[in-house]
Design brief:
By secondary structure, the protein is mainly alpha-helical. The chain is built from 3 helices and no strands. 42% of the residues lie in helices and 0% in strands. The chain binds zinc ion (ZN).
Length: 144
């Protein structure tokens, strides 16, 4: 595993590896791949390494629809760039339709991955590194 300058596991590596945002070590999904599709979004209740809750509230992942939408749009743009580069795009022929068909196909194929990574990104937006530590005892309350 790669580590950044602070000795923490790198955030990019942890996101790509779909690791828990709090410890960047525990897996966020029960299965590594998207197959079987039916259970590809199954998460453990909490991180097996640090105990961070994988679904902090009921319906927490409702907002991931927007994340996956944004990622799908980004993928369309990415496809546009390489398609333009390799095949060229012109309004004078059907190339724009070939691009659209190719891009829609790719985005549909990638949808399971997009859904998984969307949840990962979403949890990273709310949970900071080290947010949950199982091993350390609770600090005593001193305020009252
Ligand atoms: Zn963890």
């Amino acid at each position: 595993m790669s580590h950044d300058t602070n000795g923490k596991p790198s955030v990019i590596g942890a996101i790509c590896g779909m690791k828990c945002p709090s410890c960047r070590e525990g897996k966020m999904y029960k299965q590594n791949g998207i197959f079987p599709i039916k259970t590809m979004l199954d998460m453990p209740e909490e991180c097996p390494v640090c105990g961070q809750k994988m679904e902090p509230q009921v319906g927490f992942y409702f907002g991931t629809g927007y994340v996956s939408y944004a990622l799908s749009v980004a993928l369309f743009v990415f496809n546009l760039v390489w398609y333009w580069f390799f095949f060229g795009l012109s309004v004078m022929d059907n190339s724009i339709f070939y691009y659209l068909a190719t891009s829609i196909g790719i985005v549909l194929l990638m949808q399971p991955y997009i859904m998984r990574i969307s949840r990962v990104l979403y949890l990273y937006m709310f949970v900071r590194y080290g947010a949950h530590k199982k091993a350390e005892p609770q600090a005593p309350l001193t305020s009252h």
